[in-house]
Amino acid sequence: MIRVWDGPEELARGAAELIAATIRQAVAERGRCALLLAGGDTPRRTYELLAGPPYRDTVPWGGLHLFWGDERCVSADDPRSNLAMARLALLDQVPLSPAQVHPVAGQLPPAAAAAAYEDEMRAFFAGGPPRFDLALLGIGSDGHTASLFPGQDAVAERRCWTAVAAGPADGLARVTVTLPVLNGAARVLFLAAGAGKAAVLPWVLAPHGDDEPLPAALVRPESGETVWYLDRDAAGQLPVREGWTP
Ligand code: 6PG
Q: Are the C-beta atoms of 233 and 194 separated by less than 8 Å?
């Protein structure tokens, strides 16, 4: 399902509303909500909105557990850290105990950080399959999502829940969740804003026959839904408009 919003602010407001509603429903039905946060710049405004009224005072924060779709292998106070961005925009403003926040240990060697993160997710899901109530994702202009970059081994990983990847632009090591985690989610919400995402979206949302699918196109939850929130600039080259289901 695609929703096209006028601009990034409207997109962020729509995303905050959907995330808040998902948390409320999951906590009401199962006593907790497992939310996978995205990194990068796009979700920052959404996190900031969730940290303010009305969400700050109406979301049942005590039932929320936060994980990350990926993390750069840097310390938690490094400005490149996805945890640092989420802390500044959201975590430091809402009542979450440390036990509810499950970051990747970016300061560890990448393989150790990936293994520890996988152990933490498997423990949280009590040895069962990963089932995030909501997985928030961004998309790069190359069609990557989380840190699943085209052509890298992490994209093909189907047994482990985490993998080590490297940012193609800077070679920075990253830990990413793998497709089994994303495709086990009850709902995936992609956020894409700006003209820089316009060229890649048709390849992801309407891939042509024998092209190697881009990583973001491989996110197809087995028993869940994929929702795309785009702004008009990002949707500019899509063959179809609002409401189209890929
Ligand atoms: C990261 C993200 C990455 C991001 C896309 C889009 O750690 O950078 O996980 O997958 O979502 O690169 O980034 P922007 O939102 O900054 O465009």
A: yes
List Cβ neighbours of 3 (8 Å cut-off, separation of 6 or more).
14, 227, 228, 229, 230, 242, 243
Q: What are phi and psi of 244, to 5 degrees?
A: -70, 135
3-state SS, residue 151: coil
**Chain position carrying tokens 């909500």:** 33
Q: Which ranges of 37-146 does DSSP label H, i.e. alpha helix?
A: 44-50, 55-58, 82-89, 110-124
- Residue of 139, 149, 155, 200 to test ligand 1 pocket, by largest number of atoms within 8 Å of CB: 139
Task: Enter the pTM of the model.
Answer: 0.96
Spatial CA neighbour of 188 closest among 216, 211, 214: 216
Q: Among the atoms of ligand 1, which is closest to the Cα of residue 193?
A: 17
Tens of pLDDT, residues 150-193: 999 999 999 999 999 999 999 999 999 999 999 999 999 999 99
Q: Two tokens at 136? A: 């928030």
CA of 79 to the centre of ligand 1 (A): 14
> Which tens digits make up the pLDDT trace of 198-220?
999 999 998 777 888 999 999 99
Neighbours of 80 (CB within 10 A): 17
> DSSP string spanning 17-46?
HHHHHHHHHHHHHHS-EEEEEP-SSTTHHH
* Coil vs helix vs strand at 206: coil
Q: Which of 41, 136, 219, 233 to mutate to test the pocket of ligand 1 (most atoms within 8 A of CB)?
A: 41
